[in-house]
Amino acid sequence: MYFTKYVLVLVLLFITSGTYSQKQINQDVSAAWDTVTPLQNPYKGWYIHYYDNRLDRYGKSLAPEDQLKDLKGLNHVYLRLGWCYLEPEEGRFNWPLIDSIIDKWTARGCQISFRISCKETSSDQVFATPEWVKKAGVKGSFAGKNNNWEPDYGDPIFLEKLENFHRAFAKRYGDQPYLAYVDIGSFGDWGEGHTIFGTKTEYPASVIKKHIDIYKRCYPNTLLMISDDFITSRNKPDDATARELLEYIRGNGIAWRDDSVCVKFFTDHYGFSTLRSQYLFDETWRTLPGDLELEHYQLTKDFDTWKNGKPLEAAIREAHATYVGFHGEPRQWMQDNPGYADRLINHIGYWYFIKSVQLPVTVKAGQRDSVSITWLNRGVAPAYRRFALSLSIISHEKEQIIPLSNGDNRTWMPDSLVSETYHFTVPDDFPSGSAKIGVRLIADMPDGKQRVVELGMRWKNKTGFYHVGKINVLAARPLNKKKIVFLGDSITQEAFGEDGYASVLKKTRSVRKKYELIGEGVGGNRIGDLVKRQQEDVLVYKPDKVVLFVGVNDCGWPTWHPEELSNTEAEYEQSMLEMVKQFQQRQIEVIICTPALIGEKKNGGNGLDKKLDRYADICRRVAASSGSELADIRTAFTRYLEVHNTADQDKGILTVDGVHPNRTGSELIAQELSKVIK
Fold first, then answer.
1. Omega before 51 cis (within 30°)?
2. Which of 152, 258, 269, 286 is deepest in the core (most CB within 10 A)?
């Protein structure tokens, strides 16, 4: 079921000349692929036969409370039974027979599909077409092993009564949001389109077309499916009548199903997959979903045609199947084949991955830009409904969801890479700074609700967006405001949160009126990381000032990660000097913050106090020698703790954990910075 050859299909909508960014970075995100977890996605998957021609199989084998919640990818429940059960007397309908089943399974989130047959073959189903139809004057014959009654399928009275039933059925069920499809099942043994187990009469195309027309009139808004046996079980499946039927089915947009996978006869005559009519699916799978039905599971074991499910896997691939069902008791099938359903569910229908994303390094709020995404469909079929694609841009302060309209997932064919370019505009009020980018697909469901389409990817957040990269946002700059970039580690990363020091600083009168603050903090960063990021995360904004707040990780790294290479104090100083020089050459004013704390105990009571003092001294020297401003956060923190940390706690006075400031710590940092931001 896995595919190794990918066809590259480029659907390129070229970047318009009005975009802001000139540099884009292509990021391969295949490291985030998850090819194991079974997904529950809409409009595809497994189905079970709850009623299968008769009432005692197969759903009755389930305990009343069992909804097969461990069967991942269960899309719908198939109700296939004779007309006689639903209209035992003319005009009197037994809807409760199926309503209770519908209520139970739709509550689980499943859809429902139907086939209502007019001819069965078991001894207790002599009249699948209700006997009152025969008494109304419809011609027919008793035929077959069990002498079942077969109506004359072209009898005008029969067709009238049949259409009356379907009009009533469609009025109740035809436009329900849970309806997945309706089978054209009124003709032939079990509704399969042949009379092999009855009179063996071969009807002209005109009769079968009348049956199709009834369904088209009664279910105009519903997907219709038809068995391949309507064509392939004819004595001459390629004669003029068969060709006429084939054209009529094709012209009416009816989808194919194969009811015979792993049937003994087809195993003996039609190859490993047992799929007799692959050519029919080949004509339609790009635009219509295909449906496969397994032979009665017990018979596949009796005749040794199951073969660990391998023929069914091959048939799924050859038919490009979107829906796959099995005859049999569901629990028995799952117990006999542990993991089988989970292993195949993603391959059935569509299965989407993101191969790579091409993102602009920088975007400017209010200006049009673009993102290119290369998709891979590892399923066996396309999706037949268009899903809504959107982009999520998340900064420290704001999340913005932007719909992307110029793409179409229905064109993402199986085993193909497809690149699409989407245009978007970051809103004018989006703040400057680093922002995470996420991608989400949404399916509109018939009940008016929406479902997230799961990708074969990790890195998904609670709202269904998959993280694919980051960009720098330049705010639509207010007039007469200068920009300050805050460059640092996780302390700066958190600074733009509700209780962060930058958020506190923004509220001060002098800063609010004069400056736009831009956050570029990354957790775990040391001085060397800042050097690498200065071009893309600082200089790109063309700021007026930059605040350097780094050193806690440089100080603590050899203790916390002794197995990793760490920079020396001399290297820390040299890197800071070089970075300050780079900024000053561009007329950017520099503010250097001393690293604050690694533990809140007083009087050198923390294990790294002496070392951190040396790092703070380096910051003071660099500031003095370069003429930069100094915000001495360490001195301010230690003096505060001497007064207020009466119990000599190691955290909780100015920090939440000994390092990262709490609200009080943030206010103290903001106070020190406000002294040098003028």
1. no
2. 258
